[in-house]
Specification:
Two copies of one chain form a homodimer. Chain A is of the alpha/beta class. Chain A contains 13 helices and 13 strands. In chain A, helix 1 crosses helix 13, helix 5 packs parallel to helix 6 and helix 6 packs parallel to helix 11. At the A-B interface, helix 7, strand 13 and helix 13 of A face helix 7, strand 13 and helix 13 of B. Strand 13 of chain A pairs antiparallel with strand 13 of chain B, so a sheet runs across the interface.
């Protein structure tokens, strides 16, 4: 049995979903992989809880859900006011998990690698802007830097491209990578106008309070950028063309529907050419609900389709935890 | 640059397709992975060509295609009459590739591992009957034993289950894993009777001269057995229920079609319960041509679909070569 010390950044919905999987499937990880995860530190925006002997995840979830912040947990645990960079230096851990939205996280991801820690992340901007630097650092140090959950939640498109299909040269990827825009466009197919569709998405917790990241195609653009980095070569979000769905009208959506097509926010990823824009699609790209899909064209295999959840808490935790297991198995080797 | 010595068993259509990929993409492997493959030995049923300095693959393909057997190649190369077990012992190599149909290959696969060689195979019976023993041996020795091409050709369902989705518990897999039966059933949908559909498949090179392995569900059964071993636990082909398509009538196929459904040979893989049988399906399982598909249900991710080529020469070579790269990268570590 190997004990793997985990340092968790982010304890919102996704962070707690990860904690729940670690709690509920503790025996599964022990029996299947011979690994026991010990979460030694959890940070939210209020502070960092740190206990080298391991934090009681059940209590941590209770505190966060009842008081809204980890810093309320002062009767039993020390709460530190570290910056992420400080936390990465101070806390002894094998794997750092980042499920925050911290846009400048790449700096402390690099620090984590330099401290000899593996990194698992669902946070997109570090990769969409600094892929080459981060992956270069990880490779030089022989450390896992894993990011399955950044694209298509736990649906393993990153693993598929990064660790499989190794003999193929990818020609093109067409993909629907943002579930919020799929929801809005689906509602527009039913005659609901754009503004009201967004409000519905917000009420259901599908869209954020500020929905611009989804609606303007930025989220899909980050993901398309990451796919390009993995399938072709490093690139940054600044180099790609992004058009969101803000200008799509109910009329256009219905006209497409009358031709048996649907408008979806489609990412097209080719060598040195990435674009995100609304397109009329039919067949496998015409996904619904929280499904994401990627159609990968390559020289030997031809067309490969992978389709699965692209959003959701358990579904995102699936990708984060799979990477955590993968990192742990590699660190053992 | 690392040189990886390869010993190839099988030089029929698939073996030559693998050789062609190694030839045509030599620069790709060198530039992308820093690996140069040197094929030091090729065996077909006529004999084993062995040249420690590396065999000229272009010439090997020419000889085989013009004379039908490698043993004709006596003017330049030594041809040995090794058994596979002897060849595995005599020839110095890093990776053994088996693209034969040798049903007793598991013995020399084990020998290869005991000689410290990695194994890459598209040959199903060794895994369908001896998974536990083979994988146990590979794990004890820390050697790659890779078999992507045994199921769904190069479509990476094995990599997906074996190296991704590590946090999920699989509940069920529904899959169409045999392209020949899909072809026959598709022709029956067009009114062609069973016997004639088989003849057509044979003429097109889709079915073998003895089509019973496909038609009786044995090929799909081997593959379903392998999926169970990977997703759940080791099992053998003898423990599963297999029913082929020999009793399916044109009437039944047409009746399904009139309900918007298709009959396909479907594998259902659940924990300790594997069955292969013709079923009426619609949606993603209603594949056509040489597509295979697997629908994977798991606790965290929900439903995951992977669809792609399940047969074909380049498509099978895709899986074999991806595994060869993977094995080479792991041996470097």
């Amino acid at each position: 049995m190997r004990e793997v010390k985990v340092q968790l950044f982010g304890f919102g919905n996704v962070g707690r979903a990860v904690a729940r999987v670690l709690l509920e499937k503790e025996r599964f990880f022990r029996e299947k992989y011979g690994v026991k995860f010990k979460v030694v530190s959890i940070a939210d925006t209020s502070g960092t809880v740190w206990l080298p002997e391991g934090i009681d995840l059940r209590e941590a979830i209770l505190v966060k859900e009842n008081f809204g912040k980890l810093s309320s947990w002062t009767n039993e645990y020390e709460v530190y006011s570290f910056s992420p960079a400080e936390a990465v230096k101070e806390v002894e851990a094998d794997v750092v998990i980042d499920v925050t939205n911290d846009r400048s996280a790449y700096e402390w991801h690099l620090s984590a690698l330099r401290e000899g820690k593996a990194v698992v992340t669902s946070n997109k901007p570090p990769l969409a802007f600094h892929y080459e630097e981060i992956i270069g650092e990880a490779e030089r140090r022989g450390l896992p830097y894993l990011f399955e959950a950044t694209v298509m939640a736990g649906t393993p498109v990153i693993g598929l491209l990064r660790e499989n299909l190794l003999g193929d040269s990818v020609k093109r990827i067409k993909a629907v990578l943002n579930a919020t825009t799929t929801f809005i466009l689906s509602r527009m197919e039913q005659g609901v106008d754009f503004e009201r569709a967004i409000e519905e998405a917000q009420k259901l917790g599908i869209a954020e309070r500020d929905p611009s990241g989804d609606v303007l195609g930025i989220d899909a653009g980050y993901k398309a950028t990451i796919l390009h980095c993995v399938a072709f070569k490093p690139i940054t979000f600044d180099e790609i063309a992004v058009k969101g769905i803000a200008e799509v009208t109910v009329d256009e959506v219905k006209r497409a529907l009358s031709k048996g097509k649907r408008i979806r926010l489609v990412a097209t990823v080719e060598d040195e050419n990435v674009r995100v824009a609304p397109e009329e699609v039919s067949g496998p790209l015409a996904v619904s609900s929280n499904e994401n899909v990627a159609l990968i064209e390559s020289d030997l295999l031809g067309e490969l389709l992978i389709k699965g959840a692209g959003a959701g808490l358990k579904e995102t935790a699936s990708g984060v935890v799979s990477d955590l297991v993968k990192a742990s198995l590699r660190l053992v080797e």
